[in-house]
Amino acid sequence: MAKYFGTDGFRGEAGITLTADHAYKVGRFLGWYYNVLRERNGDNNPARVVIGKDTRRSSYMFEHSLDVGLNDSRADVHLIHVITKLWFTSPVWMCFDCGIMVSDSYDLYYDNGIRLVDCYGEKMLKEFLLLVEIYIDGKLYMDWRYPLPL
User: What is the pTM of this model?
Assistant: First the structure.
């Protein structure tokens, strides 16, 4: 059973059950994972990740934390700032290794969420999200020399 990621992302009360540290670790893992994946395929260009968000006050904190984590993993981050849900489902994601949407849709203003999508704009596989959770809990060491878990 998932600890952080539910049906539609990592959701929680901003600063309480979903923190800036969580967002940093999500970004750090994604940057590492996609950079290693690219290197294994002979591509030495940095992973490309896009981040969008809604207008909740806490979205700015999470956007920044994700950005820092991705940059610490040497990923190329593209911030598109405030976007609509309609844009979130557009094919523009195919220009990137993955995308992140910071939003909690219709929940209360003090809640927020982090939704991860692949390069096709589809939800990440449950197995991948489990790896992110294991990393957040400090039980997965990221090492460039060893094979990827997936």
Answer: 0.90
Kindly report the number of other CB atoms within 10 A of residue 71's CB atom.
Answer: 16
Please, are residues 29 and 4 in contact by the beta-carbon 8 Å criterion? no
103 flagged as catalytic: no
As a whole number of angstroms, the distance between CA 124 and CA 143 comes to 22
Tens digit of pLDDT for each residue in 46-87? 999 999 999 999 999 999 999 999 999 999 999 998 887 656
Q: State the catalytic residue, choosing from 58, 59, 90, 105.
A: 105
Letter string b/e over residues 22-43, b meaning 16 or more CB atoms within 10 A of that residue's CB: bbbbbbbbbbbbbbbebeeeee
**d(C-alpha 3, C-alpha 135), whole Å:** 12
